[in-house]
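Standup notes
- DV: blocked on the single-chain target, sequence here:
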Amino acid sequence: MKTMRLSRDSQSLAKCARELDKEIVILTDRNKPIAALVPLKHVDRESIALSAHPEFLEIIAHARREFAAGKVLSFDAMKRAVLPARAADKPTARKRKVRPR
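- DV (later): unblocked, structure below
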């Protein structure tokens, strides 16, 4: 992980952003981290939007607290909780392999 001081390196910030590959660059001001440049070459826009959405982050935090407390559902229990009654009772269909001609 690289670091850049904003006061000295701000002119090269655009160049650095263009050259990001897989490495995160931490931006500092007076030796304190204030921001990060994160490569987004293989990230979709929905993931970016959700990763900063406070309501979504609270849902994730709530789920993690429940998991840590041992509140988990089996796959069948989850189907019954989420799907309509008839669909939840049906066995999960196996996908048929399609052979190329």
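- Follow-up: The longest strand covers residues 32-37.
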